[in-house]
Structure formats: structure tokens, C-alpha cells
Design goal:
Layout (H helix, E strand, L loop, with lengths): L6 H12 L4 E4 L1 H7 L8 E4 L3 H7 L11 E10 L7 E9 L1 E4 L9 E4 L3 H6 L8 E5 L7 E5 L3 H6 L2 E2 L5 H7 L2 H13 L2 E2 L1 H10 L8 H12 L4 H11 L2 H4 L1 H4 L14 H11 L5 H9 L4 H4 L12 H15 L4 H12 L12 H11 L1 H16 L9 H16 L10 H7 L6 H16 L6 H11 L4 H26 L4
Parallel strand pairs: 2-4, 9-10
Antiparallel strand pairs: 1-2, 1-7, 3-4, 5-6, 7-8
Helix pairs in contact: 6-8, 7-9, 7-10, 10-13, 13-14, 13-19, 14-17, 14-19, 16-17, 18-19, 18-20, 19-20, 22-23, 22-24
The structure holds adenosine-5'-triphosphate (ATP) and magnesium ion.
Length: 491
């Protein structure tokens, strides 16, 4: 266990203890360690008050009213995370929280004397475990687990600390947190906690939309996003935060579907092949306007224009939840275009080029992922039908056409300045030959080697150069085509 804790964290704990205070690691990192997961960040709890912590670590900063001091340490890279370097460890004074008059945040923070009090104010048993390092022995540690958190981790259970009903009343964000942990950890919510979630679902309206969004994003990006959304629905939280999605509950579709609108939204999210937030959101929301656009009942009902109306509804929903413009724009674009028509017999390269131009090359791939989610989520088992594979093939083929002399590390000016070539068609022809050679071997794309090669080519006459470029490019295109076709199993 100790070997999994970064040295920097151990040093902080030991330094606090040396000054005669208690120091534990607590919360999410202990939970993750016990679940054999890699903790994202490291939180320490102590009976030292902020001023005393700052005294121990002169390089620390205390800028909030919650008793949390940021202790600067040598930057360390979290194991398994390539890009996030930690250089601050949060050390928080034991506290109890009192009076939550706005159901969101304690009116004041009261420091506590004991670890027991501090653990008692935490939300779920799995998050209320503390771990103490015994400095004398390398591998020794002590666990303080006053609420049966280890047992609940073993049984994969989310259970409120103390009286669940009271705890959700104190802080309604815990409602979202419970459901988020359900999706992230694939843990079941214990019955009393579940009943309390149901009873208090309406309290979620007191939580700021940004905070709801943060938890929703964690649900969507978890390994079980559809379970998370369905838990929001079962507890009655969904109708307060995403009433548009709730509208599809129990609404039947037509002969092409075996699921209701809501079930299909969930299944599409569940089957979404992409890990991107935007594509997952689009999978969940692509049919959001179906309840409003439904005309007729039974096998032949229709949903005309649900894609475009859906895009407008999704924009409103995401704006209300304070998503960034960047996310909103992408999701709206995907929902708006999710009905794009594609049939290999009728659609040619020009239409594919148009689609790429309309949504952008990167997003065509996302659009295909959305189509896959939509199809798999409709209960028909074909994973990636021939049609989509063919489209992927065409997209790759067409995107190759975009290859241009612009990607060369030199341009016409370089040729005129460095090689003293006169302006004229020969310059263009030399660049074409260079491009053909670079497409074949990207190593050749350096200014130095391109200039050397250009000098040689300058010895050839214009028709010869044109011929060389043409042959090389044709050859390369044919090769690529075979390769791409092989990749997507189309002939
Ligand atoms: P994550 O892995 O997402 O960081 P976490 O459990 O560490 O999950 P944090 O928000 O980092 O969540 O909070 C750290 C700890 O603080 C929690 O494990 C929990 O003990 C406590 N905590 C956080 N938010 C609340 C809350 N709203 N009510 C009670 N305790 C909370
Ligand atoms: Mg955390």
C-alpha cells in the first residue's frame, strides 16, 4: 500500500507528524487505493489549523475559508497519467460543517478536534476512510474506518454516512455525487440511501447548474454512463435537470424501433463507440426532439425534422447547464446532422467532399460514431454495416485529395531566393515533383534536402518534370486506394 503513495505525499504527512500533529490521507484517494484504482489527487487531513500548517510549510498558500492549505511539493507525475503533473498537496484541517441554509455550502466552516468528527461529515462510507503512515516501518499503515467503508467497498455499495435523508438535505450536491459514484465505480446504491435519493430528488434544483454539469460530465465520461443516466431517472432527479430527456420516457416509436424514445437514447449512449464527451452527449441527445415531432401513433408514426429541432433544443439545454461554447457547438452540429444520408450506390466522392466541408473532417468521424451509436442503440445488432465502412473509406480517400504543396517545408519563394530560379511555371512543376516524393517518403520533407533535390530537378526541362510528377502521383494514389480499401474491407 505504502509503495503506491507518492514520496511527496509521505513526506508531507511525516513533516506534520514531526511537529506533533496528526496527519492522515483521506477521502477519494484512500477509496481509490482500496479499490485498486489510481488516485487522481491526494488529500490530507490534520488537527493542525491552517496557520500552523503554513508555519510547517513556508512555501504553502492558504487562500480559502475551508481550512484547506495548498502545500507545494516537487512536481510528480501521477502514475498512469501522462499529462497531469501534481505539484500541490491539499492539507485540510479537521472540520465539521454546520447549518446549510442554502442546501449547498455550509454557512461557516467549523474546525473539529478529532478525526472522527471529520470523517463523520463526509458523504459516503467509501469516502470516509482515513489512512495513516507509520513512519518507522516501510510497509506499515493504519486504517481508520468508523463507518464500515472497507466492507462497502468489498461489497460494491454506496451508502451515506449516518442518516441518508439528513445528509442529502444538508447538501443536495451529494445526490449527484451518489449517482456519479454509481456510474464511475459500478457500485450499487444501498436501499436506504436510494430511498433518500428518491425522497429528496427535488432538492437538486438548489444546486448551481455548473456543479450539476461537472457531475453530469463525470457520469457521461464514466465506464457506465447509461447506468448513471438511468439512475438519475429512477430516483426522479432527471426531470429536474434534463426534463427534455424525461419527456421521452414511455413514448413508443415506429416500426423501425423496438425501444421507446428514452430507452433508445440510453442505449445509444451505452453503445457509443467514442470516448469523447461531445459524441457521447450527442448520442444521448440526438433524438431529444422526437416527443415533440411525433405525428401519428403505432407502426407508422413519423418524426419529421426532429434532427434540426433537436439541435436547437440541445443548444438550450447545454447552455442552461453552462457547458462551454466549444462543447455546445460540436454537440449541436452532430445532432443537427445525425440524419445525413449515405448510400454507396448513390453518393459519390463529391457529396462526401461536401459533407466534410460542411461539418469538418474531424467531425465526420464523430458523426459516423454517432451513427454507429444510433444503430446499435436501436436494438438491431449489426455493428458497422457495409454502408458506413464504405463511407469511411471514401472519407479517407477524399481527404487524401487535400494533400497539397502547402505541406512542403519550402515554397516557391525559397526556390527563387536560395536557388535563384526565375519565376515561372518550372517552379510549380518542381514543387509538384517534390510533393510526390515527400508523399512517398516524409523523411524527405526538410528544407535542406528539398533544396538539394530541387537543384537537381532544375536540370530537367519542364515537360520532363511534369511527366515525373504525374507518374509519381498517379502511382501513389493507386497504392493508397488499394490500401484504404483493404482497411475498410471494401473492394
Ligand atoms: P474524485 O475522485 O472525483 O476526486 P472524491 O471522493 O475525491 O472523488 P472530492 O470532491 O475530491 O471527491 O472530495 C474529496 C473528499 O471530500 C470526498 O471523498 C469526501 O470524503 C469529501 N466530500 C467531497 N464533497 C463532499 C460533500 N458534498 N459532502 C460531504 N463530503 C464531501
Ligand atoms: Mg478527489
Amino acid at each position: 500500500m505504502k509503495s503506491k503513495i507518492p514520496l511527496q505525499v509521505i513526506e508531507v504527512l511525516e513533516k506534520i507528524e514531526k511537529e506533533g500533529y496528526e496527519a492522515y490521507i483521506v477521502g477519494g484517494c484512500v477509496r481509490d487505493l482500496l479499490c485498486q484504482k489510481k488516485p487522481k489527487d491526494w488529500d490530507c487531513a490534520t488537527n493542525a489549523i491552517p496557520a500552523q500548517i503554513v508555519e510547517i510549510f513556508p512555501d504553502s498558500f492558504y487562500e480559502n475559508e475551508f481550512g484547506t492549505v495548498g502545500v507545494k511539493v516537487e512536481p510528480f507525475l501521477q502514475e498512469g497519467s501522462l499529462n497531469r503533473e501534481h505539484d500541490v498537496i491539499e492539507v485540510t484541517t479537521y472540520r465539521i460543517e454546520s447549518a446549510y441554509s442554502d442546501l449547498r455550502r455550509p454557512d461557516e466552516v467549523k474546525f473539529a478536534k478529532t478525526l472522527a468528527e471529520d470523517l463523520g461529515r463526509r458523504d459516503f462510507t467509501i469516502n470516509a476512510i482515513a489512512l495513516k503512515i507509520e513512519s518507522e516501518n516501510e510497509e506499515e499503515y493504519e486504517i481508520v474506518d468508523l463507518f464500515g467503508g472497507q466492507e462497502d467497498i468489498k461489497s460494491s455499495i454506496i451508502r451515506a454516512v449516518g442518516d441518508a435523508d439528513e445528509r442529502f438535505n444538508e447538501d443536495a450536491l451529494r445526490i449527484m455525487r451518489a449517482i456519479r459514484f454509481h456510474a464511475q465505480l459500478d457500485f450499487q446504491i444501498e436501499e436506504k440511501t436510494f430511498q433518500a435519493l428518491k425522497k429528496n430528488a427535488a432538492l437538486i434544483s438548489h444546486v448551481a447548474n455548473e456543479r450539476i454539469k461537472d457531475e453530469l460530465v463525470k457520469i457521461i465520461l464514466s465506464d457506465n454512463p447509461a447506468d448513471g443516466i438511468d439512475m438519475l431517472q429512477k430516483t426522479g432527479v432527471l426531470k429536474f435537470i434534463l426534463p427534455e430527456l424525461e419527456n421521452g420516457v414511455g413514448v413508443a416509436q415506429n416500426k423501425h424501433h423496438i425501444y421507446t424514445i428514452y430507452q433508445h437514447c440510453l442505449m445509444s449512449l451505452k453503445k457509443c463507440p467514442s470516448k469523447k464527451l461531445e459524441v457521447r452527449l450527442a448520442s444521448l441527445f440526438h433524438d431529444i426532439a422526437k416527443p415533440q415531432t411525433k405525428r401519428g401513433e403505432g407502426l407508422n408514426s413519423t418524426f419529421y425534422n426532429h434532427d434540426h429541432l433537436g439541435a436547437r433544443i440541445v443548444e438550450k439545454m447545454l447552455r442552461r447547464l453552462k457547458f462551454s461554447n466549444e462543447v455546445i457547438d460540436k454537440v449541436v452540429l452532430l445532432v443537427d446532422n445525425h440524419m445525413f444520408y449515405y448510400n454507396p450506390e448513390e453518393v459519390g466522392e463529391a457529396s462526401v467532399r461536401k459533407l466534410i466541408k460542411k461539418v469538418g473532417l474531424g467531425k465526420v468521424k464523430d458523426l459516423i460514431d454517432l451513427r454507429i451509436a444510433d444503430r446499435l442503440g436501436s436494438g438491431t445488432p449489426k455493428a458497422k454495416p457495409y454502408k458506413l465502412r464504405h463511407l469511411e473509406y471514401l472519407i479517407e480517400k477524399v481527404s487524401k485529395d487535400a494533400v497539397s504543396v502547402k505541406m512542403l517545408k519550402i515554397d516557391g519563394n525559397d526556390l527563387m531566393q536560395d536557388l535563384k530560379l526565375a519565376p515561372g511555371p518550372k517552379i510549380g512543376a518542381i514543387l509538384d515533383v517534390l510533393l510526390a516524393e515527400v508523399i512517398e517518403d516524409t523523411e524527405k520533407n526538410s528544407k535542406e534536402s528539398l533544396l538539394i533535390r530541387a537543384k537537381q530537378l532544375d536540370g530537367e526541362d519542364l515537360p520532363k518534370l511534369r511527366q515525373m510528377a504525374k507518374e509519381k502521383i498517379e502511382e501513389k494514389k493507386e497504392e493508397d486506394d488499394q490500401e484504404i480499401k483493404g482497411k475498410y474491407w471494401v473492394k
